[in-house]
Queue: 2 jobs
Job 1
Amino acid sequence: MSPQPQAAVGAPLSRVDGRLKVTGQAKYAADHDIDGVVHAVVVDSSIARGRITGIDTRDAEAQRGVLGVISHLDKPRLTYRQNQVSNAFPGERLHVFQDDTVRFFGQPVAVVVATTLEAAEHAASLVKVSYDAEESATDLTRGPAQDGPPPFARPYARGNAEEALGSADVRLDLAYRLSRNHHNPMETHATIARWDGDKLTVWDKTQWVIGTQNELAAVFGIPLENVRVLSPFIGGAFGSALRAWPHVTIAALAAREIGRPVKLALTRRQMYFTVGYRPAYEYKLRLGSTRRGRLTAMTHDFKYETSRYEQFWEANLALGQMLYAVPNVSQNPQIVPLDVSTPLWMRGPGYGSSAFVIETAMDELAYKLGIDPIELRLRNEPGEDPSTQQPFSTRRLRECFRVGARAFGWRRRDPRPRSTRDGDWLIGTGVATGCYDVFRGQAQAHARLDADGTAVVQSATHDTGTGTYTSMTQVAADALGLTVRNVTFRLGDSAMPPAPAQGASQTMLSVGSAVQDTCDMLREQAIKLAVEDERSPLHGVDPDDVVVRGGRLHVKGDPARGETYRQLLARNNRTYLEARGSYTPEEESRFSMYGYAAMFAEVAVDARLGLVRVRRMLGVYDAGRIISPKLAESQAVGGMVGGIGAALLEHTVTDHRDGRIVNANLADYLVPVNADIPDLKAVYLDGEDYKAAPIGVKSLGELVQIGVAPAIANAVFHATGRRVRELPITAEALL
Amino acid sequence: MHPFSYTRAANTRQALDAGRAGGRYIAGGTTLVDLMRETVERPRTIVDISALPLREIMVTRRGGLRIGALVRMSEAAAHRGVRALYPVISQALELSASAQLRNMATIGGNIMQRTRCTYFRDVTAACNKREPGSGCAALHGVNRTHAILGTSDDCVATHPSDAAVAFTALEATVHLLGPDGERTVPFADFLLRPGSTPNREQALRKGELITSVEIPALPRPLQSGYLKVRDRQSYEFALTSAAVALHIRGGVIHEAKVAAGGVGTVPWKLPAVERELIGQRPSNVLWTKAAERAADGARPLRHNRFKVELLNGPSSANCAS
Amino acid sequence: MFGAGPADAAQASPSSRVTLTINGERRTITVDNRTSLLDLLREHLGLTGSKKGCNAGACGACTVLVDGRRVNSCLTLAVRLDGAEVTTIEGLAKGERLHPLQQAFIDHDAFQCGYCTSGQIMSGVGCIDEGHTGSPEEIREFMSGNICRCGAYVNIVRAVEQAAHGK
């Protein structure tokens, strides 16, 4: 087969769904206009642990428009079958309204349904719940760790870290505390549920329509094919919508019990209760090094929070094992079950937390040894993956630093802390490595080429703002030899060919490869039709010599000889051609596959006011092939903004006396605003990685946030001489 | 939100009648509607006063200012007279909230703002301000953003307004109109410290309306400015702020008006700092020395000790220069 | 727990009639006094372009123009809008022709998920009308009432600059 010309892939196209978004026409979960829909509002527990002793619904039910109040007292029937196609964690997921136990503050304890939102909200505030409260434990620093390691993790050791530390020229022994963060997508989670007999349709904010479909089938004990989940637009998620949370069940339950379609949108406050979060960590890191800056040992002892009913895990071990050539490593992860809800992966899960620790420690080591922080990292570049001895598919971290150092002006830096001033501000620069896995999942797609020469391609994937609609259109357009305008990509429907969850940066690689496969098949089908058609100008041509461009099939090197799809299909009386293709990653890869980044930050610190302001940032990425450069740049810049939040602002605060989250709103849980963000620059290294994927991409969406917070923390040290081993870095730590 | 009846007052008389009957005035509504949605506020009747003729900004004969209660924050901030005479007010307003909120909220409503204390806003928590006698969850709870000055064992909530800090510094007065006629209250007496009755926040009588805020004339030239310290650069309440106005003549400070925000249960006038400044020549040494008096009497809580350091930093005085 | 008492025994919330103009169209509507402008638009009039991000004036996703000024529609009671003129994102384009700021948002990729976008654009229109576009710093400050969690701020500033100055 002749390689197709790449006109769309790699071109800086604007978002294909841009017009819908700037005109307010893109339909997010709560925007769908469903006939006869009524409104549900959840009532949350105001204790973190104990039992419900009574629920008085009389005042609520006396409100005009109220259709019902549902709680465990109604013993609503839910099956809660096991569900393997789920991002639930070992343990047992929260069952809604099945018993009187309260497991965390803000747990749903009842739902009110009314004909208007106003009535439902008011009635919900009138439901009186009484409790027998028990003392709760929500403080990671005080809770005892569970015996044994977290799920899918085990203590790791290579070499003898203790011995190597004992004999190291230089040792660092550091303790870190990382705050809990909430994803806080701008769209609050919402579900509209409608039953038609025993068939359930939900319009949901989900990063995994197939996962939500499976969960609802399991919870309600109905066949999978009776559930359809739709999620055409997602107002951001960053991981929070990777599993079907209790409110999804509640919406469907309420719709079943009331007998009307039900819309349930969580409030912003409720977004802090039941849709996951990045867990708090306590992390102890020890480093051993030679005087020349070769790492000899690294030990990681850390614990993080989880709920009492599920054992959360995230990928917090990989970086400690593979990022640098350290001969002696030990890792001892622990989880602390608390009276809290279950965390869920948040952008760059595990990697972000461990990168902060490792990358600020590397900076400390650089200062201790008097070696440039970039140079220190380069001295510890491994030739192969030190944990698996596999070759890297691609690893261009060196190049990231070289390109970044030049563009950022790293050489001009005076390395001494507190050496640079601008008026009242202390200026500092810092650097950190970012690195994230290349996750790959099975995906399928379907493509149909119509007689009018346009194509529709679809897969049950998602666009959380990452640009799936656009990037898949680009891949499909080139594979089909069509202009972007003549290709429509559809997603977000569980009835479409299955795709993995949109998490762990696997969508471009997995779904993109499936789209490529599907569209290749379709194009070849059309070529076959042409070369076997006596009436075609392409009759008898070797199919491998035919390419398609702008909807026209022609002989490679002889553009004059060919015909259009339209001509071909019309002559053959075909209204359409279609194909279904897939991508399945190989079971065991021979390669170690990761994306890499060099992050640079410049900060200004007013030491008297404890203020840190980011002045500029630069990220240089080795992310494989970039399908959609304009959108990839937005992703990278957005990752920096997320990282700035994690570094300087974000902190979910719990009152440990009763487990109450006290800043469960956007005025008190601070995320960056426009004024916090200066010009940010992103550079992707040209290249591709065909060992990682048939379409040459690695991963991107997580990678771009991983090294941001440590780069900023290192810059704060350079500016002030103050090493902060806590996130976020706030005024208290700097005064 | 609890149900309520709604009336629109066509004139002052109608408003006062409705107010006397127990109606709750609404102007910009940015605090009231927000708190009604949280069910912290549950008025039975709302009286819309936006049609009242309280929208004027007047430069008084002696060079003071009178700002109508219904002037929007954005209008006051942009007003040429305000900008020219009292930059500290413009700056305090423009560093508040967001452009959208400033387009809605009024000057009268701004000084009537209720605290952002998280326990006050959460009806499932103990709060003496919201529910007298229920206790103060903040006192031994999470209190990073709370007050260190003017607190009591019953309440440690800060007053959130920035403009009120400027008004306090400038020794403004509040003009009120009630069923019994007009009266004028010094700003310092208008907002009440919590004491044992944190539910009483202003020296307002039943049915009284704020008609304007008057800033007295101060000797010219006057340098003034507002400094606001917060975690993020915008759209956040102050951790600490300072409003400063200085009359400097012949290189000597003759008049100093200083107040701090974000640290007190009410905007906190700093007379000790003012005394340190008056009669002195401006210098970094002076700022530092004066600021050392800014936290006099502070009672820090578990999480907000850093506010003492912020106050004692030299910046509070520096911002005027 | 279903089937509250007979409807006439139920407690009703006071409502009012208001006449207002939305995107050029004059409407007379009976609203529950509690209904916010945002919920009126979204739940009663099918104008779901304005978004609910916090319902507390802390995010800006609900920004619309009322009598030409940008405001948070979540904190605006609909009952107070008698005689008002409201412009939402749905009323910004002239037929097929996008408002220059809408086009600038597309050109500069000033959004990702799109959820804050309606509010950003309406706020940007207000920002330009107010004349707060003198420098990138001024735009940043005066656009800070609109949170974008995807982090498109850099491009939002460029889009507002383009629309304000034809850059």
Job 2
Amino acid sequence: MAENVEEPWTQARGMFASLLAGPVLFLFAFLLAPLAIIWGYSFGHTQGLKDIVVDGTFANYAHALNPLYLSILFKSLVFAVLTTGICLVVGFPVAMAITFAKPQSRAWLLLLIMLPFWTNLLIRTYALMAVLRTQGYINVFLGFLWNSLSHLVATAHLAHLAPFQPLDLLYNNFAVILGLVYVQLPFMVLPLYSAMDRLDRSLLEASLDLGAGHLRTLFQIVVPLAMPGIASGVLVTLIPSLGAFLTPDLLGGVDSQMIANVIERQFKAANDWPFGAALSFLLMYVTFAAIALQSMFTPKRGRR
Amino acid sequence: MAETQRPPRPKPGPLDYLARWPLRLWVAGTVVFLYAPLATLMVFSFNNSRRNIVWRGFTLDYYAQVLQDESLQHAFVNSLTIALVSTVLSVILGAATALLLWRFRFPFKPGLEGALSIPIVVPEICMGVAFLVFFTKVVPWPTALPWPLNLGAIIIAHVSFSFSFVASVVRARLASFNREMEEAARDLGASEWRTLMDIIVPHMRPGLFAGGLLAFTLSLDDFVITFFTSGPDTITFPVKVYSMIRFSVTPEVNAASTLLIVITVALTAIALRLQGSDAGHDAL
Amino acid sequence: MPETPALPRRRPHRRSLLAALGASGAAAVGLSFGLDGCSDKVRRGANGEDAKLNFYNWDTYIGKDTLKDFRAATGVDVNMSLFANNDELFAKLRAGNPGFDVIVPTNEFVTRLRVADLIQPLDHARIPNFGNLLPEFQTVVFDPDRRYSIPYTWLVLGIGYRKSRVDGVPDSWKWLFDSDRYRGRIGLFSEADDLVRLAAKYMGHSVRNVPESLLPVIEAMYVRQKKHVRVFHEDNGQDLLLSGDIDIVLEYNGDIAQVMQEDDDLAFVVPKEGTLINSDCLCIPRGAPRPDNAHRFINYLLDAKVGADISNTIMYPTPNGAALALMPDSYRQNRAIFPPKDRMAVSEYGDFEGVERTHMFDELLTRVKAA
């Protein structure tokens, strides 16, 4: 990778200003302003049913730091990290395959990966349930295999197999992780693809020519070169998984409550916006802390 | 763009990973994983039963119902309009942001980077409520505007959460740019803007395309934020569907989703074709 | 119950919504992006209001032709949009009414909305059909003299079950809340308020004013029961029951009656301890742009013939006596729609008891789920 030295903004004021204007204006007017209101709410309390008095209280944060909520937060973190790890492992080869595919087929391969995600999340989740449920397609198929096998074994007078027991694929933590991977996978593949595409092939070819195997080339050349894409992919997968509520709601069992479920209930059923806001921003502070930590331990790109 | 003109490979080269069976198998497995539930959905859109669970024979009734359900069609059109407009805006804003962060060193840069990760970090529901309060109390968006102006609030909300996703993807792409190209162009007398448009933007294309896909997907699928910003006249497809299937999925919803997939694929295919095969290759 | 008629709460309906939106040209064909104006095309009615009405309702909760007939009778176009639950409705109205004229909250939310001053008093002089309502619905605990709400339907929570997989009739909350007999096959409703109140009912208390001392007992019971429960469902219990994922579930009568029609092996019972009664009501939110149309619409829905048409489509119990008289026996005698009198006699409406209680119940459920 070429040395990427940023230039000071004063060297190209015109371009700097024109690039800056749109995003910053939008950011302040339509993102920071609305969020600032909610941030304010996190220091307030509900008066009556709909009015929120912002009185600078930290009670909501104190409440959110209750071990109950911290343990739920921790569990959500574990779920999100697992999901991101699986997405990375599954998505990396797919992104590589797309990257090194023929140019004509690349757009179509990308579409193939993205297409399922143009269906509403709720509908997709219900569809996934139809596949996984007790009498879903997986269980029906396995049951068919088992019964055929047991029939064969019985006709051969070998033994009698126990009747087929459907697998419990739904309403547990496994289903939640699977569902999250299902939902988040393209958000991993896209940045990976975007970063790997047109990475310097001569490096790879050189590595192969010098006798390094494909795997060695992969881990020593491709992965380091794809690092920015991996970082971006991890970010856009990990954090939304942390904020998922529909997947654990519908696929999860009695133990699958995640932090976003609790937050969602504060804004709806519990009607406690200040507490919901405090939980949301707590989640945000944690994420920012994690990003800051991560950037402290990763060497700067420019110096590599 | 010399970089793009790779010599044609008549047979699988050492890097043509897609031609190798382990990777083929991997991709195929992933595709099956992604499509098995969708295939179920599409098959059950022809099911002659109110429920999704037991197969009770073939029917096209639900397609007929979808085609007659004007409110569903209106929601369709709203969703596609919002997705298209917000994707274009998100790609422009996201690309500008990515360029800015990649190219320049300036005060408050970490602040800007932090602000950009906010939409990714804040739970959707929190953003939804933020927009609800913002668009009813702070900047009341007039509800009686003619279509499509009444979609403005929703489009703004969508752009504000998706453009930072685009920026993140495009920035990852820019990291692989060889600055010497740019310097060469400038040494040859090209202006700042010419260099940008002729050298850097073409390099960004895969990132723009990937980011655009991401933004389109996010917008088309968004329920939570849209729910809070929509009014009686600005229902989108996910909002409509969500209220219809909160209790159970009906074949009508399956049929509508199948149609939505077919329409979006058709539109994308047309767009890819219109770009021309050459441009298409270049873009990717 | 083979005589169970269809209860297709989610039945598709065709409405001329686009006409109401004034954008019929825009979207009559899926993809033609017309730019017809909206506001400038809406006609005005004789009462000076736009000939239009924004109706915020549950899905498939209206007669097949009701809206069309209303337009024919009054010239007012009804634009119906849908919400999925009361919490959404409340959250949406909380910051300000985005333009709805008539909404359909459940009884407890009628109280909430009234306390929050989000709905306006009704003008009974403009609702002459009020007399069609059965006397017991003309004044109720949550809204004396019906100053703010007109009942539209009522419904009860109970136990839906698969006959071949349970022993006899599971007519006690015990089988859901306090027993391992159906372990791994139980589905509970993920609604904190309902779970707490029904547990209190099971323990012999009223669903109203559940004493605070009872809450730890209830919590302990659910924590104990949790290991036998397969899932806390999101009001999709009838689907889980039909698909065989669970065999016994806490759900609304209407939802279970829907799937009973698909599968003879399913049934519904109101437990002997009694249950929570709910009632969905018509209200006019504050800031409704067209209050006169709203009153006319509410009055129209109370008409005997119109009410019967609605009941024929949605098959929920109706509080409208005049409409009930027009209904066939297959509806009036249906035990899933109208549970036995003795069970109704021990059942009660829930009450909104303040935000503090809501928060308390919610946290209780959070703790149970995290335990």
